[in-house]
Write a structure and sequence with these properties.
The complex is a heterodimer of chains A (236) and B (425).
Chain A: E1 21-26, H1 31-40, E2 56-59, E3 62-67, H2 72-77, E4 83-87, H3 88-94, E5 99-103, E6 109-116, H4 122-130, E7 133-137, H5 140-150, E8 154-158, H6 165-168, E9 174-179, H7 183-187, E10 190-199, E11 201-205, H8 207-212, H9 214-235
Chain B: H1 14-33, E1 37-38, E2 44-46, H2 47-54, E3 63-66, E4 72-75, H3 80-89, E5 98-107, E6 119-128, H4 133-149, E7 156-161, H5 163-170, H6 176-187, H7 191-198, H8 205-213, E8 218-219, H9 221-233, H10 241-252, E9 259-262, E10 275-280, E11 289-293, H11 297-300, E12 307-313, H12 314-323, E13 335-338, H13 342-354, E14 359-361, H14 367-377, E15 381-386, E16 390-393, E17 404-405
Helix pairs in contact in B: 1-4, 1-12, 2-3, 4-10, 6-7, 7-8, 8-9, 9-10
Classes of the chains: A alpha/beta (236), B alpha+beta (425).
Chain lengths: 236, 425
């Protein structure tokens, strides 16, 4: 991969202290819990709780970059962000070189294989006759790794949304998708065949940021990790 | 058709190429100043050779191709294994240690084609046949001096060692699958997985503590001592000795302020056996280069010998130089020479080149056109060549000044760029 470098974090020359750490946070499902965790860990969040349409939020010592969950690993791997919070699923799917520092325990979800409620033996039967099943997913890498480990030959159809639709319209025999409660799958008359992997939010760091900003990055990892454990105990 | 470069490859043109030559020259002069000699190897190697030398890390990264007889070849993904092959085959029987260096293009295939680069320029050294802290410290010192010669103001070399992790695993008493898991987690930089594996109930608590703490240790001499305490609790304090001595030598060599110890460094090539190093520039998200000690590679080729080295990514060094406002100043054109008499133009240009100037022949003959061409090319001088071995400088107004004799071409005043094997820099 080609390093593109980044603009110096304090290019305006306003401060004499170290450049703020750049932390990417995912919008969407993980966002509220991420803000709560940062607060619980005593990390300054500035206006992050109500960012409006802002994508970069400055707080003392930290610049937050709000990104799409799938893009967060790339921000970190290329050094545009020093650290980030990202789902384990996104880390596996992106397969980029980042340091996984801490399991933050929240944002738990499962990757599952699902098929039509009325599929019965149809999928197994098709596999016997044709030797391949078609799987629709947003996560081709996770899907490929899972079925390869089982020795099952598949053809992957990469979709960008409404995965649960694929078996209903005959686009795929099975789907690999993410589920927290299984409600969406049930509503679309799909049933879970097996678990692929569990996922939780992780604190990740750029390998070079970890070396060059070791104290700040490890301190942040420790604080978030401790806060995550406390929050986990509160809810259980 | 409209031709394009193949995906993942690119052309290096003019300014970038000139700056690259300047960087490589500075780095190469340091290599040679330390007694390293340049070698060149084929871009293609037998796949089996690379596989024997590099092990599993080759999988998915080598750019493979078939020879006409069906045998599997690969473009070299790095230079360490090709140079180990050279030492084990071409230099066998010659007394070591061998100090070899290179500037070479290497090729990597990406599992998924995401438009990433597949060809990289690397500059590096290999010290084969010498072991111990003195050899390790030499490699680090060459690296520091090379980057200083390249003109990079700010960088840090991180050094660590695999010896501690290997000793902890060997003394853990747990099975190979678990040990391989820890090693894999360390290579993937997955501290969450390392911590999880350290939580194995049958593991000695001292080893578990060390596995959790050691990858997070960093700093100077004090980090080495902290690591020694963790290792001592597991009965393997000796695993830290070599790095401690290397550090002492780096302090003595006056390069320690550019170096920090970091026990979390593990490189993705898994052939390293002792010291590991990586180079970082602040603000650049990827290391400038890396290396370490790989005592097992030569044994794979039947000529066991200790070895260590590093490779710098020339592209990333150039990026770091640009980011730090220290891109090499590249010498431009000095003069454009033209005139009605083509023979006189050649003679004047030759004389000016012999006097050490960079001279281009003008496309048009008129004085104002020559001036315009010099201005466009950024050359200070526009020169009108006149028959009879005379020339005149053309002023900013496009009007030639007084004619004066051409410098004597038979006796070059200074031509230092021509003395080294005809290479003109």
């Amino acid at each position: 991969m080609m390093a593109t470098g980044r603009a110096p974090a304090s290019g305006d020359g306003s401060g004499v202290g170290p450049a703020p750490l750049r932390m990417a946070v995912p919008k969407g499902a993980l966002f509220d819990d991420t803000v709560a965790l940062l607060l619980a860990a005593g990390v300054p969040i500035g206006g992050l709780a109500e960012p409006g349409r802002q994508l970069i939020v400055r707080a003392p010592g930290i610049d937050y970059i709000i990104g799409k969950p799938t893009d967060i690993p790339a921000y970190v791997a290329y050094g545009a962000a020093d650290v980030a919070i990202a789902g384990k699923d996104m880390l596996i799917e992106s397969a980029l070189d980042v340091v996984e520092m801490a399991d933050l325990l929240y944002g738990a979800c499962r990757f599952v294989v699902a098929e039509r409620l009325d599929a019965g033996e149809a999928v197994a039967d098709k596999y016997r006759h044709l030797g391949v099943i078609r799987v629709a997913t947003k996560y081709p890498r996770i899907t490929e790794l899972h079925f390869a480990a089982k020795g099952v030959q598949i053809e992957i159809v990469k979709l960008h949304g409404n995965i649960e639709l694929a078996p209903l319209i005959g686009l795929a025999d099975q789907v690999v998708d993410i589920t927290a409660t299984g409600t969406t799958l049930k509503m679309n008359r799909l049933r879970i065949v097996e678990d692929v992997l569990p996922s939780t939010a992780r604190f990740i760091a750029n390998p070079v940021a970890l070396r060059c900003e070791a104290d700040r990055v490890t301190d942040l990892a420790d604080r978030l990790s401790r806060a995550a454990k406390m929050m986990g105990e509160d809810t259980t | 058709m409209k031709p394009v470069t193949p995906r993942g490859f690119r052309d290096v043109l003019l300014t970038e190429a000139a700056e690259r030559r300047a960087v490589v020259r500075g780095v190469g002069e340091v290599f040679e100043a330390w007694g390293y000699g340049f070698v060149e190897t084929p871009v293609v190697e037998e796949y089996a050779t690379l596989e024997a030398g590099a092990g599993g890390s080759l999988e998915g990264t080598a750019f493979r191709l078939f020879d006409v007889d069906g045998s599997l070849l690969a473009l070299r993904p790095e230079m360490t294994v090709p140079i180990a092959r050279v030492v084990a085959s071409r230099l066998v029987g010659q007394p070591g240690p061998h100090r070899l260096c290179y500037v070479a293009d290497v090729f990597r295939e990406k599992e998924s084609l995401r438009g990433e680069a597949r060809q990289f320029a690397q500059a590096g050294v290999e010290l084969v046949g010498a072991s111990g802290p003195a050899a390790d410290a030499e490699v680090v010192a060459v690296l520091v001096e090379a980057l200083e010669a390249a003109g990079l103001p700010s960088f840090t070399v991180g050094i660590g060692t695999v010896a501690v992790l290997r000793a902890l695993l060997a003394g853990s008493g747990l099975d190979e699958a678990w040990q391989a898991g820890v090693m894999r987690a360390a290579h993937e930089r997955n501290l969450v997985e390392t911590d999880r594996l350290a939580g194995d109930a049958s593991l000695d608590p001292a080893v578990a503590d060390a596995l959790r703490a050691v990858p997070r240790l960093h700093g100077g001499a004090e980090a080495i001592e902290r690591c020694r305490r963790y290792a001592a609790a597991c009965g393997c304090a000796g695993a830290v000795d070599e790095l401690a001595e290397t550090w002492r030598l780096l302090e003595a060599a006056g390069v320690a302020e550019r170096v920090r110890v970091d026990f979390g460094i593990l490189r993705s090539f898994d052939y390293y056996t002792g010291m590991i190093l990586e180079v970082y520039a602040p603000g650049l998200g990827l290391p400038l280069g890396g290396g370490g000690r790989y005592d097992g590679v030569l044994a794979a080729f039947g000529a066991p010998a200790p070895a260590a080295g590093f490779a710098l990514s020339v592209e990333r060094v150039q990026i770091a130089l640009a980011e730090q406002g220290a891109a090499p100043r590249v010498r431009g054109l000095d003069a454009v020479v033209g005139g009605d008499d083509a023979a006189a133009v050649f003679a004047v240009a030759r004389a000016l080149r012999w006097s050490g100037r960079r001279v281009r022949l003008a496309s048009l003959a008129g004085p104002s056109a020559i001036r315009a061409e010099a201005d466009a090319a950024g050359a200070a001088d526009a020169v009108l060549a006149i028959a009879n071995r005379e020339m005149a400088s053309i002023g900013a107004d496009g009007i030639p000044g007084a004619a004066r004799p051409v410098p004597d071409a038979a006796a070059p005043a200074e031509a230092p760029t021509r003395t080294e094997g005809g290479e003109r820099s």
